[in-house]
Amino acid sequence: MRRRPGLSARWKLTLSYAGFLAVAGALLLAVVWVFLLRYVPDNSQGLLGISPNRYLLVRTFAPAAAVAMGFLLVFGLVGGWFLAGRMLAPLTQITDAARTAGNGSLSHRIRMKGRQDEFRELSDAFDSMLEQLESHVAEQQRFAANASHELRTPLAVSQALLDVARKDPTRARGELIERLHTVNTRAIGLTEALLLLSRSDRRTFTRESVDLSLVAEEAAETLLPLAERRGITLDVTGGAARTSGSAELLLRMVTNLVQNAIVHNLPAGGTVTVHTEAWGNTSVVRVENTGPPLPPELVPTLTEPFQRGTERVRTDEHAGVGLGLAIVHSIVRAHDGTLDLAPRPAGGLLVTVRLPGTP
Fold first, then answer.
1. Ramachandran angles phi, psi of 188, nearest 5°
2. Which of 163, 194, 190, 192 is closest to 179 using CA atoms?
3. Of the candidates 71, 46, 68, the residue with the CA atom closest to the CA atom of residue 57
4. 182-191, 298-307, 347-356: range with highest mean pLDDT
5. Is 250 within 8 Å of 177 (Cβ atoms)?
6. Neighbouring residues of 32: CB distance < 8 A, sequence distance ≥ 6
7. Whose C-alpha in 170, 191, 272, 350 is 20 to 30 A from the C-alpha of 312?
8. What are the Cα distances from residue 266, in Å, to 125, 233, 298?
């Protein structure tokens, strides 16, 4: 933004200091005149014939007062310039750091020393902002790189299948079409997941009152055939838990959690429990499943995009793209909630979602 040139903050503070001293000196001289000189007789004999009269005192006092005023003005300018420089030095550090960050270097930190004051508070807030911004940019770069890699895989497979078909015209077309359909379906699913993740991150949705218990029942009803095919018992318990948000995104959140709990379960005889409740001003959704034990160090990585974990990779039709819990985390964050993942001692995972409740 282009602005007209003006005085710097240092010059403004300097002139303010000097002006304050000049006004204070003028007030002091006015007090001397009002409470001292006005009581001196204005005659040739003075007071009792031995003191100077007002005329002589004024002629003697005026030059000295003018010199004192000039000294105060110069002292105010010099001292004000020095003090303003000392006061604005932290602001200069913050400005330099902002320019450095504007040039693309987000790793720079101010780390201003000294006791707490407004400038140190601003410096700490700026450092915290840079740290979050650097983390967000790094996360976005990793996400873009991973998304590019994931999208390139089905395209490369499709290209290889087409090349094989072109070199071998006698190859069965039905098998080729089926494999291309599978690869294309996976690519479409990945693209839709990326779009949903982007939408939830931007928070571009209309909020409405949503009962999480009804959302959980709808998600369970949709995934019940999958659970029955795998021999998984799916239960929905609890009561009403209302929150404010997007019904579509919240349904996707619960659906992803339930599907994840069904797919990553025991080969047969497993259970999935979905529980909803209102706890004070918080609406809670818990999804608990049986399954193989999870290493504690693996659990924190499950919400990262494309981080499936070596012990959670599947090769069947529900292999996924590594965005299920990442989408859940993004939706929960967009609704100002919290997501907790905890491995169960007997195996499986306990996922707890807490969202702001509404009456």
1. -65, -45
2. 163
3. 46
4. 347-356
5. no
6. 61
7. 191
8. 48, 11, 18
What pLDDT is attached to residue 316? 47
- The CA distance from 324 to 301, in Å, is 12
Mean pLDDT, the chain, integer: 81
Please list, in sequence order, all residues whose beta carbon lies within 8 angstroms of the beta carbon of residue 350, skipping any fewer than 6 positions away: 286, 287, 288, 341, 342, 343, 344
Res. 339 pLDDT band, cuts 50 70 90: very high
Contacts of 193 (CB under 8 A, 6+ apart): 321, 323, 327
Residue indicated by tokens 């999480």: 212
| Unique residue bearing structure tokens 């604005």 | 88
The position carrying tokens 């007997």 is: 346
CA 197, 203, 204, 206 dihedral sign is positive
In the chain, the DSSP E strands lie at: 208-211, 233-238, 242-245, 271-279, 282-289, 338-343, 349-356
Does residue 302 sit in helix, strand or coil?
A: coil
This prediction has a pTM of 0.59
Residues in the chain: 359
CA gap 192, 190 in Å, rounded: 5
Q: How far apart are CA 110 and CA 87, in angstroms?
A: 17
Name residues whose C-beta falls within 8 Å of residue 240's C-beta, 6 or more positions apart in sequence. 211, 213, 276, 278
Residues 277 and 243: beta-carbon distance below 8 Å:
no
